[in-house]
Design a protein that fits this description.
alpha/beta; Rossmann fold; GMP Synthetase, Chain A, domain 3; 4 domains; 9-stranded mixed β-sheet; 7-stranded mixed β-sheet; 32 helices; 31 strands; PKS_PP-bd
């Protein structure tokens, strides 16, 4: 039977009026919100009429639904449906402002300029000025209700709603979900996973409702059956796995969902001896598990544990489903008994429900599906739609699989070497390229293989990196350094720590086409063919760790070491007191996490981020923290990377004086030391530089102290380009060779621009440079803060800025005022600057300029950047890079920028 999905709510409101939705707000397990199906129907009808009155009769209008509370999402989903519009469930916005702008700009085009429904407490998530047309639902409350028609419509196969894909490998796609598809999907689920609503049961969801599994698998299926549905926040469940079991017990949950990683957590908790005698899980019928492969041993273990609490032995249901199939459509109803009998390591995902067919084609075993449950197009994306279907109409899932004689499906991998790590997908080829581009010493070029795999004893998949070493088999230091460099590269690319293994060339044979076979190497690894190499590698790494490890000398060092072990998930006694934390894989996110943990443990109100960056070893940081109250002598040098055999790269700060902008760049440069110059005046009591001559002399002295001999490589970002030019002249005048001078998007003549920047403009530039607000918003408040005193202007900016970003930077009003005055002082020093003299050579990296200085990139290049030729004796090389002036080193552009920079350094013989 095909029905319009409004039939689901109509039926539930009519036949099961007193059942409904119980939604628990975040961190509030005692005060759930309850709405019966009858109340939900009434709310949706009334809201639908309000929406029609407010938005008009645009039947093809798409409404993006953006709420964080489950109940809000459900109420407004049905309100939009009842209004006759097409709902699209919004995914969480990227936290980084530039990424958020890019995401919303893409949605504006993809969804034909949609209306976005949200609430006032979430408006701060939207960049200013608004990219989308945003409607706060509170503004509808006073609107008049007319007699516009709303409510159930006639059955139709037309578009019911849009679900957004994650966009982890590119921009998000919108999957068209039709009424016919939902009807077929729910019919198939009800057939495969029957329940008896007369038993007073419920369904439970704890995944965001932008996921098709929570929306169709749980919410709409519960409506069809007419039972209660319980919604909890994912943060609460993940942080407290027992809440999952307690809720099943309390609300008599028969059907819910749990991915493999969470099943592992349940095993851990239940085996830890936590009290569980109060639990009665006899109500439980199905825990559907998907998203990643299920380990049979885990299924066996959790099934036995749940069975002792009253659940049936086959409550765990491994499944296959996609957004394109309305979530689960193939279920294994005989787990774990069937998989144990077949001696499977990975659980089968079972057999098709009515409404879907499957087949496996080609030598690789490509899984293809068809039937009324399967979608038929991506919205506004004909190209991807065409590429996703075979000529005879079967959808190509991208998975490889086998179907056994019983018609049961087992997945074997992903086509195109797609790795899924912690729910995020990465192309193995792209990761291999990234590692190759890092030119890591110790790796034979062209002999790197990446894939994801479940290693013995592990419960989730991990990235594996196999490489051919160039060092001697017994060179334990080279082995350790190579592994550390690979780990660092993978962490930068994926955020996950890899399993790294060097192998002899005989194990890395190439095909006749010259290709290393990741699949073959993975199979050999699984079969234990590399066990001897694995044991030798582990022993060698351990030997070097033991060699460099020294015990903590005091309680502060011990506390920092233990917190670092926790953050990096490292075994005890693997962290040396003098080892650089960044070499161990400390990312910017992990750095902030470590900062907070140390502050809490050692009871520091605030540890400046620069303190941790300038003291990147356990011992150095412990010493720095003990001397917190002792005035420190100014040192402009911040070490971003201490390792590498090539000539160091010196990076000079932009006009804001700080070097945080170089953190992302430095992570990619592992073959040479990277130092950054930080301006004077950030710390209380420090004076600002008086003029350019003093600044240049200070930096020149610091560089010579750290690197007495050339050749030198200097680069500056924006304002720092001018300082790099001046320092290079000073070095050359002393007889030193400066082989590289990099100017990041700055012309030689800057005094006119410097004169445009008053104190207020410096504050606003600093604000969006630090990402505490967008550039557009900073300019929109200029007139409001210009008349204010400096403290008043600072207070206003603090009030309207991104609170989370302020906390991340440990930025308060006092620090922001000091920072703005420092930046203003630096800009003022250059108001009368005219370049003189020359350097031997220069590399200019240019991108889209500020609108106030040039109309476009070509004018910027020809009229403003070409004049550098007047101040260079040999040659100037120009490098076109992506982004705009303030985003050229941002995360979305940094990979391309670093590749261009490193090639330029090599071209200069460095």
């Amino acid at each position: 039977m095909t029905f319009h999905i409004s039939y689901l709510l109509e039926r539930a409101a009519s036949n099961n009026a007193n059942n409904g939705i119980v939604a628990y707000p975040l961190n509030d397990g005692s005060h759930p919100r309850k709405v019966t199906y009858e109340e939900l129907h009434a709310l949706a009808t009334a809201n639908g009429k309000l929406l029609r009155e407010h938005l008009g009769c645009r039947n093809k209008l798409i409404v993006l639904i953006h709420f964080e509370d489950h109940l809000d999402n459900i109420i407004w989903l049905w309100s939009v449906i009842y209004a006759g519009y097409t709902p699209a469930m919004s995914t969480a916005f990227p936290r980084e402002p530039h990424h958020c702008q890019k995401h919303l700009t893409h949605l504006k085009t993809l969804l034909d300029d949609p209306i976005c429904l949200t609430k006032s407490s979430l408006l701060s998530q939207f960049p200013e000025p608004s990219i989308l047309t945003v409607l706060d639902v509170a503004s509808l409350e006073g609107a008049p209700i007319t007699h516009l028609q709303a409510g159930p419509r006639t059955p139709s196969p037309d578009l019911a709603l849009l679900m957004l894909t994650s966009g982890s490998t590119g921009n998000a796609k919108a999957v068209c979900i039709t009424h016919q598809q939902i009807s077929a999907s729910l019919s198939g689920k009800a057939s495969a996973l029957p329940v008896n609503p007369k038993e007073n049961i419920s369904f439970m969801n704890w995944i965001r409702l932008d996921h098709v599994g929570s929306l169709v698998e749980i919410h709409m299926h519960a409506l069809l059956v007419g039972v209660n549905q319980i919604h909890l926040q994912p943060e609460d469940i993940i942080s407290n796995p027992m809440l999952f079991l307690d809720t099943i017990h309390q609300h008599r949950v028969a059907r819910t969902f749990a991915p493999n990683f969470f099943l592992c957590e349940l095993v851990r908790v239940l085996e830890s001896g936590v009290p569980q005698s109060h639990l009665d899980l006899s109500c439980l019928r199905y825990i559907v598990s998907g998203g990643e492969a299920n380990l049979v041993s885990t299924c066996v273990c959790i099934s036995l544990l749940l069975n002792t609490l009253g659940a049936p032995k086959n409550a765990i249901i491994p499944a296959f489903g996609m957004t394109e199939t309305c979530a689960g459509s193939i279920y294994n109803l005989s787990c774990p008994s069937y998989d144990v009998s077949q001696k499977h390591e990975i659980a089968s995902v079972g057999q098709c429900v009515p409404g879907i067919r499957m087949r496996v084609t080609g030598e690789e075993g490509n899984l293809e599906i068809s039937g009324p449950i399967v979608f038929n197009r991506y919205y506004n994306n004909e190209q991807d739609t065409i590429k996703s279907f075979t000529s005879d109409g079967w959808f190509m899932t991208g998975d490889t699989a086998v179907i056994d004689s019983d018609g049961r499906l087992s997945l074997s991998g992903r086509t195109k070497d797609l790795m899924s790590i912690n729910g995020v997908k990465f192309l193995a080829a792209e990761l291999q390229t990234a590692i190759e581009e890092d030119t890591i010493k110790g790796i034979q070029p062209g002999y790197v293989v990446c894939f994801s795999n479940r290693l013995p004893g592990a419960h989730t998949e991990q990235i594996c990196v196999i490489y051919l070493p160039t060092y001697s088999p017994d060179d334990i230091e080279a082995r350790y350094r190579t592994q550390a460099a690979i780990t660092r590269s993978v962490l930068v690319f994926t955020g996950a720590r890899p399993y790294v293994l060097p192998l002899e060339e005989k194990h890395l044979g190439r095909s006749t086409l010259g290709k290393l076979s990741g699949a073959k190497i993975r199979r050999s690894l699984d079969n234990g063919e590399y066990s001897a190499a694995e044991e030798h590698n582990a022993a060698q790494i351990k030997a070097y760790q033991d060699q460099i490890w020294s015990p903590p000398a005091n309680e502060t060092e011990e506390a920092i070491m233990q917190e670092l072990e926790q953050v990096l998930d490292l075994p005890e006694k693997t962290i040396g007191m003098e080892a650089t934390m960044f070499e161990m894989g400390l990312t910017s996110v992990a750095l902030m996490k470590l900062k907070r943990r140390i502050e809490q443990r050692l009871q520091f109100k605030d540890i400046p981020l620069i303190t941790m960056m300038k003291n990147p070893s356990v011992r150095a940081l412990a010493n720095a923290l003990r001397q917190t109250h002792t005035p420190q002598e100014y040192d402009p040098v911040v070490t971003l990377n201490a390792q590498g055999s090539k000539s160091p790269l010196w990076l000079i700060h932009p006009g804001v004086g700080e070097i945080l902008v170089f953190l992302g760049l430095a992570k990619f440069i592992t073959d040479r030391p990277v130092y950054a110059m930080r301006a004077r005046g950030f710390n209380e009591g420090e004076t600002h530089f008086e003029d350019i001559a003093e600044t240049v002399a200070t930096y020149h002295t610091a560089i010579k102290a750290k690197q007495p001999q050339g050749p030198y490589a200097l680069a500056g970002y924006s304002y720092g380009s001018m300082l790099a030019f001046e320092v290079a002249k000073t070095l050359e005048s002393g007889g030193d060779e400066v082989r590289f001078v990099g100017a990041f998007n700055l012309p030689p003549h800057i005094k006119f621009r410097m004169r445009q920047l008053d104190w207020t403009e410096c504050l606003l530039h600093l604000s969006f440079f630090l990402d505490i607000m967008t550039e557009e918003f900073s300019q929109s408040i200029r007139e409001e803060i210009t008349p204010l005193s400096q403290p008043e202007a600072i207070a206003y900016v603090m009030k309207v800025s991104d609170a989370a970003r302020l906390a991340e930077l440990s930025l308060d009003a006092e620090k922001l005022l000091r920072w703005t005055c420092l930046a203003y002082g630096l800009q003022s020093m250059a108001r009368y600057y005219d370049p003189t003299g020359c350097v031997a050579r220069m590399d200019v990296f240019y991108c889209h300029p500020l609108a106030v200085v040039a109309s476009g990139k070509q004018q910027w290049l020809e009229e403003h950047l070409y004049p550098w030729r007047e101040f260079v004796r040999e040659d100037v090389r120009y490098h076109d890079v992506k982004g705009e002036h303030y985003t050229m080193l941002a995360p979305e552009h940094i990979r391309g920028f670093q590749a261009t920079l490193r090639k330029a350094l090599v071209a200069r013989g460095l």
